[in-house]
Specification:
It comes from Streptomyces sedi. The chain is α+β, with helices and mostly antiparallel strands. It contains eleven helices and 15 strands.
């Protein structure tokens, strides 16, 4: 599913019900056990269904997972369900991805509504509180409904765990909880984002997954806004199953697949993959990104994510439904995909598509061992930043051995959708100078004004 998509409406087609409620055969890395959460009668996830598209590589498998129990979703109509999408090169891998994404969204909505909120000002909480201006917020030069940070103003706070310093901290609730506005209005420091949400049976694995998403979005957004061309990664010879995946593409399908190394300074490889179709029923650009512990794994996941966007957008009738809209009316990820269908949008991607920078993989092309959470946190700490996790696990998922977390890295650059961009963070301007892309920091007016193509 596109990033930051909210709950999806509609029950599954009756003909599809139960198509995949029996566990798939185990693969080499099928992830957590799903038996406890997937059941048409008693499970939080009621159905996991195939999602078929002739536009996908034959070696790629997709699954769609939907939850029941909509009465537990705060503020959501009874006919809504939460939906997750999974991709992989096996049914088991796709199933784990779909169920995990569904539980992440379900758990954050239900658990987020149950998290205790402490009221007070930053000064009231003292040294245990993380100030709002430690995060990248919207620029004050941009009119918005967000309020400026005020350390004396009362607001909601939720408890988090600072993994960098191994201590309890308080973070602004609006930055950590979905649907927070429904509880306390007038505290928006920044648009809320799903970035950093993750679900897993291993709490450390959940935090690591959330941290990797934060690093992925940070790298992409800094490069996009600064028009900072990343090195291009050769598609073949880096990851064996990517080679096999691309070799299984339908021969009649006219498209180009490319990949770039977005990695900046936070320690873990970040890869962007682009599927550029020449097809009347597809947007001209479909991108996926991934942060993993080594380049082959990151490349593999990014390519799968890009083709996932191809499948979803084709099913939804793009680009026929695309209409020209002013930037201020871009409200969600799909609007950004519509924008890429407009004449002339390719020119805004010249920094990515037309400039060529050779790739020099650090340490050769052999897969590295998997990065641990402690190593990933240490790498962030070396850059003067910290990793904070907020536990959003609702009671029903906790009883089944699952954990839902929101991982925050104050100072990292968020990926924003629509007109309101978070351009007030120091890192956005400082890092391109530190890493040699610019001689001096860009002015806000010099940043890329084009909507990003990410979904």
């Amino acid at each position: 599913m596109p990033a930051d998509a909210g709950p999806a409406a509609g029950p599954p087609d009756a003909a599809d019900a139960g198509l995949d409620t029996v566990p798939d055969a185990a693969g080499p890395d099928t992830g957590p056990d799903l038996d406890a959460v997937v059941s048409p009668r008693t499970g939080i996830v009621t159905h996991v269904m195939p999602f078929v598209s002739e536009l996908l590589p034959r070696a790629m498998v997709t699954r769609l997972a939907l939850t029941a129990r909509p009465e537990l979703l705060p503020g959501v109509a009874a006919d809504f369900s939460v939906m997750g999408f999974g991709v992989g090169t096996s049914a088991a891998e796709a199933r784990v991805g779909a169920v995990g994404e569904t539980l992440e969204r379900y758990g954050s909505l239900v658990g987020g509504a149950l998290v205790p909120v402490e009221r007070g000002s930053y000064r009231d909480l003292g040294a245990d509180a993380v100030p709002g201006d430690a995060f990248a917020l919207p620029s004050r030069a941009t009119p918005s409904s967000c309020v400026p940070w005020d350390e004396t103003a009362p607001r909601g706070w939720v408890e988090g765990h600072d993994l960098t310093r191994d201590r309890r901290v308080w973070v602004p609730a609006q930055l950590a909880l979905p649907c927070y506005r429904a509880r306390f209005d007038g505290e928006d420091l920044s648009p809320w984002t799903t970035t950093g949400l993750a679900a897993h049976t291993d709490p450390e694995a959940a935090v690591l997954a959330g941290l990797r998403e934060v690093e992925e979005r940070d790298a992409f957004t800094i490069r996009h806004l600064n028009r900072w061309t990343p090195p291009e990664i050769p598609l073949f010879g880096v990851a064996d199953d990517v080679d096999a995946l691309l070799a299984s593409l339908p021969r009649w399908l006219d498209l180009e697949v490319r990949a770039w190394d977005l990695t900046l300074d936070l320690g873990q490889p970040v890869v962007l993959a682009g599927v550029l179709p020449n097809h009347p029923d597809l947007p001209p650009f479909c991108f996926g990104a991934s942060c993993r512990g080594d380049y082959p794994s990151a490349l593999r996941k990014a390519v799968l994510e890009a083709f996932q966007i191809v499948a979803v957008m084709a099913r939804r009738g793009f680009p026929a439904t695309a209409t020209a809209e002013p930037l201020e009316e871009l409200a969600d990820p799909e609007d950004h995909i519509r924008m890429t269908c407009q004449p002339g949008y390719r020119d805004s991607l010249r920094w990515l598509l037309h400039e060529r920078v050779p790739w020099r993989p650090p340490g050769g092309r052999a897969p590295a061992r998997e990065t641990t959470l402690a190593e990933a946190v240490e790498a962030v700490a070396r850059r003067g930043m910290r990793v904070i996790s907020v536990d959003l696990t609702p009671p029903d998922l906790r009883e089944l051995g699952w954990h839902v977390v929101k991982t925050l890295v104050p100072g990292s650059q968020p990926l924003s959708f629509g007109r309101l961009q978070c351009l007030g963070g120091e890192r956005l301007y400082r890092l391109p100078v530190e890493l040699g892309h610019r001689r001096e920091p860009a002015r806000e007016s010099e940043l890329n004004p084009a909507p990003h193509p990410f979904a």
